[in-house]
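Work Package 4 report. The design task specified in the project plan requires that, given a folded chain encoded as structure tokens, an amino acid be chosen for each position. We show below one input record used in the internal validation round.
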């Protein structure tokens, strides 16, 4: 939580020299020599670290020497997951002049009895100018962690503790000592369990000994260390107290417990003390693990080295894992390295017998060995990978009449096993490729495949069978034709996640690439309790492509506020200068450090509006974490009247409602649509939207989406215009079927005054590969017309996507709202372009004022 001006920042040395010093602060961007170390407050951007996870900012604390650099978050500008400052947020090796940073570590947050530290002061005890270790001390009290307190309803109570966390970096050291000392602030001892919440970020490979590279699976047990590595750097966290114990860890966020003991009264005995080390090094876990072993004085090591090849050539960047060393089979991963440019790898290992597992990208792994490693000696073990094929795909838009190629087109590439694979055959998700710049190189094992290239719902598919030989290189031009006419609309995904959501592994550049490939033009980042601005990443992609992407996609900052009872998203909100920040909309309150309550949506909506939110959207309204389920709705059976809802929970101050959330089409039709109908019939109209809520790269970006009627191309449309059109209901829910309605010149979202008869114009479009079976016209929620939809090309051979266009006469006798929903059969699927997604479409309501009083009188007011 942000607490400007409430924390007492104590820089004990007057400037930066040490207690009582009046010496000038040392610059923190100078390169140091061996034997030198520094600590201080960051005052210039040149003093920051860089890389995907780098989150330091002005006012934070930096400790560094000639080998390693660390940043501790300042107390008055908390923006990381821990809610409070004073925690380690950046760690990297000091890189040679001119080498780009690659900071991949996210945060280390102390845990004490499932709670944390509320820092009250920060002291730079020594800035290192005297050649002694640089030291920073954070002092605070026991305090709840917002996320957990809200989940357990405040059943955790902070203890009277004095907590000191010290960070110490010695000259010539590759590791930061993190020392936690806990004393009782009362006259009696306090029992306490101490550990850390370790967030290893989204940039690198996370590694646990025994388990190896950790993906999306949960894990538990005792571990010697936890690390994250890229090809250019590693960070490793270990305890001096013994193994790290975790009862349950999930991707990217793991609570490790290290010690249980007694905190004696302050001044009456030794504090409860826990020491941890954070090591940094070169690429691969082994670069850090070797430093840990040397630090611990663990016996003489041997060297295991070799070359990873595919055919006659090296395999640079291959992920190499050493197994064995006496660990039990299946849980015997010891260390990890990356193959260099020449394919070579190197491990420093204790004596023992090992095998080597090597993998290149998503290609199948190979095992080599065993081989014996002896102390002080070197063993060699090469790994031969199967030689893959190399497929180069260029996607182009083709003129539907002449067949001539027009321009490059971004596309998503999916693969199925076998030639002429039926659409229903599962895709090989590990080879899903986002050709966001209209071209991509895909490496595949030799064999037969069916390739599908797609660009969202507006275009045809390119389907091609091919048999690839080992080492073969082939080039394909995937030719796509625009089939749906969506002129005047912008395709928007108002709810999607990236790796900034701590439980998600979807790097920001990959997230953007997937949406460009799927034809999404407006992407709102709505990470859990984190506001993300990805424009710097988009700009980097544009520079890489040498192209202007402003006509392809616009990225907007949003947030999914995620209390345990229900979620909503808000967008058009700011974020921190670093590009992302957690807890700008906290959903719990505290009094004197003690949890008070979880806030309900009325308070949270107000906070979002204070931040400048232009749009507030109720996420997945029915079901788990659904706001309307929280309010007691269970449509179609149970639909309370809005006037009867408790005001402490109910707030109508939102703009949109998710009718379609990701693949949940059945939930849309069976629950969300009846909810929306019931709200409309009470006179409460909110824009129905479609969203992807995508958390992973194979959780299809762009299904669902919302088509917003702006009447301008993306480059010309102002963001505020898009927001206003969306809030006004000028939008369609797009799950592959585009259903449009109009009455005279009125479109969805409009109020039309008309007595007597009227003609409703209906148009349904679906690309030739999209199943579309039926469309229904709703009048005040009742089906008043239904039409079966023909196959593509039957209604209009020249425009195969046009499935139906018709004028339907109606004669309402009272105020009536009209909408339309188009569906496919329950077994229909958009595989292989959007696996597991059933086509659907919805047009928002047009309200007809029949009695001429200038407003809409609902049927169930």
């Amino acid at each position: 939580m942000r607490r400007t001006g409430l924390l007492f920042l104590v820089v004990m040395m007057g400037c930066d020299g040490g207690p009582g010093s009046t010496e000038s602060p040392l610059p923190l961007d100078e390169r140091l020599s061996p034997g030198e170390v520094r600590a201080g407050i960051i005052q210039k951007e040149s003093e920051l670290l860089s890389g995907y996870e780098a989150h330091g900012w002005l006012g934070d604390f930096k400790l560094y020497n000639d080998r390693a650099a660390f940043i501790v978050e300042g107390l008055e500008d908390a923006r990381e997951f821990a809610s409070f400052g004073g925690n380690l947020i950046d760690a990297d090796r000091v890189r040679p002049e001119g080498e780009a940073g690659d900071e991949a570590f996210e945060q280390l947050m102390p845990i004490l009895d499932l709670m944390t530290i509320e820092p009250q002061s920060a002291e730079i005890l020594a800035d290192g100018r005297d050649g002694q270790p640089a030291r920073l001390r954070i002092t605070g009290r026991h305090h709840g962690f917002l996320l957990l307190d809200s989940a357990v309803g405040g059943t955790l109570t902070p203890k009277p503790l004095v907590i000191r966390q010290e960070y110490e970096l010695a000259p010539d050291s590759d590791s930061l000592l993190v020392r936690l000392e806990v004393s009782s602030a009362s006259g009696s001892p306090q029992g306490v369990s101490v550990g850390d919440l370790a967030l290893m970020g989204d940039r690198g490979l996370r590694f646990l000994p025994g388990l190896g590279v950790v993906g999306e699976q949960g894990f538990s047990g005792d571990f010697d260390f936890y690390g994250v590595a890229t090809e250019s750097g590693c960070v490793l966290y270990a305890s001096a107290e013994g193994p790290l114990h975790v009862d349950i860890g999930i991707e990217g966020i793991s609570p490790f417990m290290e010690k249980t003991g007694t905190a004696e009264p302050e001044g009456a005995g030794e504090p409860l003390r826990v020491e941890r080390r954070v090591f940094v090094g070169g690429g691969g876990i082994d670069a850090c693990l070797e430093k840990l072993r040397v630090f611990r004085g663990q016996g003489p090591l041997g060297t295991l080295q070799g070359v990873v090849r595919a055919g006659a050539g090296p395999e640079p960047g291959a992920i190499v894992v050493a197994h064995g060393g006496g660990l039990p089979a299946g849980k015997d991963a010891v260390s990890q390295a990356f193959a260099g440019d020449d394919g070579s790898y190197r491990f420093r290992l204790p004596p023992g017998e090992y095998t080597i597992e090597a993998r290149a990208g998503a290609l199948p792994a190979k095992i080599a060995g065993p081989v014996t490693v002896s102390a002080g000696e070197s063993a060699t073990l090469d790994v031969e990978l199967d030689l893959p094929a190399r497929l180069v795909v260029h996607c182009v838009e083709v003129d539907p009449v002449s067949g001539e190629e027009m321009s490059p087109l971004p596309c998503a590439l999916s693969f199925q096993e076998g030639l002429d694979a039926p659409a229903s055959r599962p895709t090989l998700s590990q080879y899903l490729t986002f050709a966001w710049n209209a071209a991509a190189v895909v490496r595949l094992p030799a064999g037969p495949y069916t390739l599908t290239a797609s660009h969202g719902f507006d275009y045809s598919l390119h389907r091609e069978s091919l048999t690839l030989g080992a080492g073969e290189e082939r080039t394909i031009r995937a030719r796509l034709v625009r089939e749906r006419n969506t002129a005047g609309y912008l395709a928007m995904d108002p709810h999607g996640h990236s790796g900034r959501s701590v439980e998600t592994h979807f790097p920001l550049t990959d997230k953007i690439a997937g949406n460009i490939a799927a034809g999404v033009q407006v992407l709102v980042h709505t990470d859990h309790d984190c506001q993300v601005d990805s424009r710097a990443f988009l700009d980097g992609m544009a520079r890489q492509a040498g192209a202007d992407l402003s006509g392809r996609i616009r990225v907007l900052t949003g947030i999914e506020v995620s209390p345990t009872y229900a979620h909503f998203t808000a967008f058009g909100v700011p974020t921190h200068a670093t590009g992302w920040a957690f807890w700008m909309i906290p959903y719990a309150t505290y009094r004197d450090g003690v949890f008070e309550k979880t806030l309900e949506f009325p308070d949270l909506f107000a906070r979002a509006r204070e931040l400048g939110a232009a749009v507030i959207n109720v996420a997945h309204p029915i079901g788990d974490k659904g706001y309307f389920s929280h309010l007691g709705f269970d449509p179609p059976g149970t639909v309370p009247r809005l006037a009867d809802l408790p005001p402490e929970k109910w707030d109508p101050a939102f703009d949109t409602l998710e009718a379609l959330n990701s693949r949940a089409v059945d939930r849309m039709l069976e629950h969300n649509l009846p909810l929306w109908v019931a709200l409309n019939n009470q006179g409460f109209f909110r824009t129905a939207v479609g969203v992807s809520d995508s958390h992973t790269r194979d959780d299809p970006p762009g299904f669902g989406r919302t088509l917003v009627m702006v009447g301008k191309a993306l480059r010309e449309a102002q963001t505020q215009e898009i927001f206003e059109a969306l809030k006004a209901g000028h939008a369609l829910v797009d799950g592959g079927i585009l259903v449009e309605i109009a009455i005279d010149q009125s479109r969805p979202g409009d109020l039309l005054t008309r007595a007597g008869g009227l003609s409703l114009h209906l148009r349904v479009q679906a690309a030739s590969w999209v199943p579309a079976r039926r469309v229904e016209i709703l009048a005040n929620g009742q089906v008043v017309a239904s039409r079966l939809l023909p196959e593509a090309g039957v209604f209009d051979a020249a425009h195969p996507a046009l499935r139906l266009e018709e004028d339907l006469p109606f004669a309402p006798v009272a105020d009536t709202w009209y909408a339309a929903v188009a569906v496919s059969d329950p077994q229909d699927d958009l595989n292989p372009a959007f696996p597991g997604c059933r086509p659907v479409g919805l047009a928002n309501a047009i309200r007809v004022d029949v009695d001429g009083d200038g407003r809409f009188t609902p049927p169930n007011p």
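DSSP finds eight helices and 56 strands in the chain. Validation will be extended to a larger panel in the next phase.
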